[in-house]
Amino acid sequence: xxxxxxxxxxxxxxxxxxxxxxxxxxxxxxxxxxxxxxxxxxxxxxxxxxxxxxxxxxxxxxxxxxxxxxxxxxxxxxxxxxxxxxxxxxxxxxxxxxxxxxxxxxxxxxxxxxxxxxxxxxxxxxxxxxxxxxxxxxxxxxxxxxxxxxxxxxxxxxxxxxxx
Length: 164
Known about the structure:
The chain is of the alpha+beta class. It has six helices and five strands, in the order ααααβββββαα. A five-stranded antiparallel sheet has the order 1-5-4-3-2. The model is unreliable at about 90-95 (pLDDT under 50).
């Protein structure tokens, strides 16, 4: 890093919140929407370096935009236990524990999501997706999307007579 830029970045830690916001407006040409000092320091330091040493080439920016558009963004890893599915598929639905919206165990649920055909096998005690057994359809949907959503709605299952 250039010595002048290094000194400027080092001095950012000594500035007050108001001074950091003013410096942010100076280097970005717009007001900061936050007062978080750590975030402001990181962003200003990045911008100073980019201005001094050059930013990403346009080709890299376009590729990053393409990847971001197609990416299934996940901010945190799934919080499920990874037990592998058994080969045995029970033939009967459990008594009063099964939801009426579910077909019998052994059935494959198919869903098109982001251009991929996903298949989930209903087990007697859980749901298999990608070789992993999940305790609920919502857990499967969360593993797929990266965010919590209702599994019955995600797989378009509804009670008889309801419209999906």
